[in-house]
Amino acid sequence: MAAGPKVTKDMAWSDIPLCKDSGIPIANYQMPRTVWLAAKVSPDVIAFYTTLLKKVSETPEWKTYIERTSQSDR
Protein backbone atom coordinates (compact mmCIF):
# COMPACT_ATOMS: atom_id res chain seq x y z
CA MET A 1 0.00 0.00 0.00
CA ALA A 2 1.29 3.46 -0.84
CA ALA A 3 2.81 5.41 2.04
CA GLY A 4 0.49 8.41 1.80
CA PRO A 5 -0.18 10.85 4.63
CA LYS A 6 -0.26 9.95 8.31
CA VAL A 7 -3.63 8.60 9.45
CA THR A 8 -2.66 8.61 13.13
CA LYS A 9 -0.15 10.68 15.05
CA ASP A 10 2.78 8.64 13.75
CA MET A 11 1.49 6.05 11.25
CA ALA A 12 0.50 5.99 7.59
CA TRP A 13 -1.54 3.18 6.02
CA SER A 14 1.72 1.63 4.79
CA ASP A 15 2.90 1.23 8.42
CA ILE A 16 0.01 -1.13 9.20
CA PRO A 17 0.68 -4.81 8.38
CA LEU A 18 -1.41 -6.38 5.63
CA CYS A 19 -3.64 -9.34 6.43
CA LYS A 20 -1.35 -11.66 4.45
CA ASP A 21 1.66 -10.36 6.45
CA SER A 22 -0.20 -11.38 9.61
CA GLY A 23 -0.94 -14.89 8.33
CA ILE A 24 -4.50 -14.19 7.15
CA PRO A 25 -4.86 -15.30 3.49
CA ILE A 26 -6.67 -12.23 2.12
CA ALA A 27 -4.82 -10.89 -0.91
CA ASN A 28 -7.15 -8.00 -1.68
CA TYR A 29 -10.00 -6.47 0.30
CA GLN A 30 -12.69 -4.55 -1.52
CA MET A 31 -15.85 -2.92 -0.27
CA PRO A 32 -17.59 -1.18 -3.15
CA ARG A 33 -19.94 1.68 -2.36
CA THR A 34 -23.07 1.80 -4.47
CA VAL A 35 -26.07 4.10 -4.73
CA TRP A 36 -29.34 2.46 -5.72
CA LEU A 37 -32.54 4.05 -6.98
CA ALA A 38 -35.98 2.53 -7.29
CA ALA A 39 -36.88 0.86 -10.56
CA LYS A 40 -38.25 3.05 -13.32
CA VAL A 41 -37.27 6.41 -11.81
CA SER A 42 -37.43 9.31 -14.22
CA PRO A 43 -34.35 10.51 -16.10
CA ASP A 44 -34.63 13.78 -14.12
CA VAL A 45 -34.13 11.91 -10.84
CA ILE A 46 -31.14 10.03 -12.24
CA ALA A 47 -29.66 13.30 -13.52
CA PHE A 48 -30.20 14.98 -10.14
CA TYR A 49 -28.31 12.32 -8.20
CA THR A 50 -25.61 11.99 -10.86
CA THR A 51 -24.97 15.74 -10.69
CA LEU A 52 -25.13 15.81 -6.89
CA LEU A 53 -22.65 12.98 -6.42
CA LYS A 54 -20.31 14.44 -9.03
CA LYS A 55 -20.31 17.77 -7.14
CA VAL A 56 -19.64 15.99 -3.84
CA SER A 57 -16.76 14.00 -5.36
CA GLU A 58 -15.10 17.24 -6.50
CA THR A 59 -15.03 18.87 -3.05
CA PRO A 60 -11.84 19.15 -0.98
CA GLU A 61 -13.62 17.33 1.86
CA TRP A 62 -14.32 14.33 -0.37
CA LYS A 63 -10.74 14.23 -1.62
CA THR A 64 -9.50 14.32 1.99
CA TYR A 65 -11.93 11.55 2.95
CA ILE A 66 -10.74 9.35 0.06
CA GLU A 67 -7.10 9.93 0.96
CA ARG A 68 -7.45 9.43 4.72
CA THR A 69 -9.52 6.26 4.39
CA SER A 70 -7.31 4.67 1.73
CA GLN A 71 -10.05 4.39 -0.86
CA SER A 72 -10.10 5.00 -4.57
CA ASP A 73 -12.19 7.55 -6.38
CA ARG A 74 -13.35 5.26 -9.15
Describe the fold and architecture:
With 74 residues, the protein is mostly helical. The chain folds into two domains: 1-30, no CATH class; 32-74, no CATH class. It is built from two helices and no strands. The chain has helices spanning 43-57, 60-68. The longest helix is centred in the last third of the chain and has 15 residues, at 43-57.
Based on the model shown, name its key terms.
74 residues, mainly alpha, 2 domains, 2 helices, 32% helix, elongated
Rg to the nearest angstrom?
17 Å
Q: Which structural class fits the helix and strand makeup?
A: mainly alpha
Strand content: under 5%
Mean pLDDT across the residues is 85
Give the N-to-C terminal Cα separation: 17 Å
Low confidence ranges: none
So what's the overall shape? elongated
Helix and strand sequence = HH
Number of strands: 0
Total discrete domains: 2
Helical residues, percent: 25-40%
What is the overall number of helices? 2
Helices and strands in order, then pairings?
Blueprint: H1 43-57, H2 60-68
Short summary:
This protein is mainly α and 74 residues long.
